[in-house]
Design goal:
The chain is mainly alpha-helical and 381 residues long. The chain folds into 3 domains: 63-125, Dna Ligase, domain 1, CATH 3.30.1490; 136-232, no CATH class; 258-380, no CATH class. Helix content is 53%, strand content 7%. It contains 14 helices and 6 strands. It has helices at 2-53, 74-83, 90-99, 118-125, 146-157, 161-168, 171-180, 215-232, 234-239, 244-257, 261-276, 284-291, 327-334, 358-380, and strands at 63-68, 108-113, 136-139, 205-208, 343-346, 352-355. A two-stranded antiparallel ribbon has the order 1-2. It has a two-stranded antiparallel ribbon with strand order 3-4. It has a two-stranded antiparallel sheet with strand order 5-6. A hairpin with a 5-residue loop joins strand 5 (343-346) and strand 6 (352-355). The protein is flat. Belongs to the transglycosylase MltG family.
Length: 381
């Protein structure tokens, strides 16, 4: 009886051993297969990148005349070089420039060769000769509302303010821009947002080779500059818990509140601390924007306005930016200074005082609140 029972057991054991061997072989060959595929992909990628970084035609190089316009971004330069047949990929050029942290490209006329590597082309593009002086130069300061930026564009280009605003609020045009710029998302199409492009028109000096560029040319030149800044902060954005639209909104608040670089990062830290604790941000510039009036100082009555921009009434980050932030403010919004501060008070003279408790903050407020009243009265005289 016992012998007959052992045979089935032995057979079952051997069958399981056999199956285990088969499974191990399958796993082994799968691992080998994946390793081989991975190796092929890595080798292929290496040769592709090496080839793309190398000369387009080293054996029979051809000299090509190229003009790089004033204000060209790395993306635009890459497109020009690719169109002229000097590099294989404008996209790779842009990423390579970012990876190498290259900058300082000069506008000008160049005689470039298809026998040059990408590194050689980059070096050459840093030593250009300006083709001609720009016909139009103007500067947009940091922290301006979109309507104020539109006024600057209008006064400098000869277009009317109404024409500029028509372009800046044209939904079809804006939807096209969303397809063109990765930083622009459908968030800006929210019907409660006052102006979709608020906060995205970069404050800087702009040079144009024509006396009266089109409104679209100006707008896209400004968006190009913002996209360049956003691209340089790509790693920070990937690590952030907030969307690009939320970061631009925080940056706009920081820009309106801070006067120094140090304060931008400290104020950013306060905003993050309040958000982490579920506290309202309670920043005055959002109230002014909600009121659609440039207020020197806000009153208690102002704080009651029912608007998604009003951070005294609604928790979290407002629905959208309230001004055009500069690069330092955008960076500060992504790299807040780590402190225990929950409150800050900006004095009339520009000094910002930080506190960890409401009691201390209230003492500071009571101590310096008359500065703003007296300062406003003095400027009105």
């Amino acid at each position: 009886m016992s012998n007959s029972n052992e045979k089935p057991r032995n057979a079952l054991y051997e069958e399981r051993v056999s199956q285990a061997k088969i499974v191990r072989k399958i796993v082994f060959f799968c691992v080998i297969g994946l390793f081989i595929i991975g190796t092929i992909v890595l080798i292929s990628s290496y040769f592709y990148i090496s080839n793309a970084l190398g000369p387009v035609n080293e054996e029979n190089p051809q000299e090509i005349e190229v003009t790089i316009p004033i204000g060209s971004t790395a993306n635009q330069i890459g497109t020009i070089l690719e169109d002229e047949g000097l590099i294989r990929s404008g996209t790779l050029f842009r990423y390579y420039v970012r990876y190498q942290n290259e900058s300082g490209f000069q506008a000008g006329d160049y005689s470039l060769s298809t026998g040059m590597t990408m590194d050689q082309l980059i070096a050459e593009l840093k030593d250009g000769r300006v083709v001609q002086d720009p016909e139009l130069v103007f500067t947009v300061p940091e922290g301006r509302w979109l309507v104020d930026v539109a006024e600057i564009i209008a006064s400098e280009t000869g277009h009317s303010h109404e024409e500029v605003m028509d372009v800046l609020t044209d939904r079809e045009y804006i939807e096209g821009l969303i397809d063109q710029y990765s930083m622009l998302t459908d968030d800006i199409l929210n019907e409660q947002i006052r102006y979709p492009l608020e906060g995205y028109l970069f404050p800087a000096r702009y040079d144009f080779m024509v006396e009266k560029p089109s409104i679209e040319e100006v707008v896209e030149a400004m968006l190009d500059r913002t996209q360049v800044v956003v691209d340089t902060l790509a790693t920070d954005l990937e690590d952030s818990e907030y969307t690009i639209h939320e970061i631009m909104t925080l940056a706009s608040i920081i820009e309106r509140e801070a006067q120094t670089s140090e304060d931008r990062y400290l104020i950013s830290g306060v905003l993050y601390n309040r958000l982490d604790r579920g506290m309202m941000l309670q920043v005055d510039p959002t109230v002014s924007y909600a009121l659609n009036e440039h207020r020197y100082m806000t009153t208690y009555a102002d704080l009651d306005i029912d608007s998604p921009y009003n951070t005294y009434r609604y928790e979290g980050i407002p629905i959208g930016p309230i001004a055009s932030p500069g690069e330092d403010s955008i960076q500060a919004a992504l790299r807040p200074e780590k402190t225990n501060y929950l409150y800050f008070y900006a004095r009339f003279n520009g000094e910002v005082i930080y506190n960890e408790t409401y009691e201390k903050h209230n003492e500071t407020h009571q101590m310096y609140r008359n500065e703003w009243v007296e300062g406003q009265a003095g400027e009105e005289e």
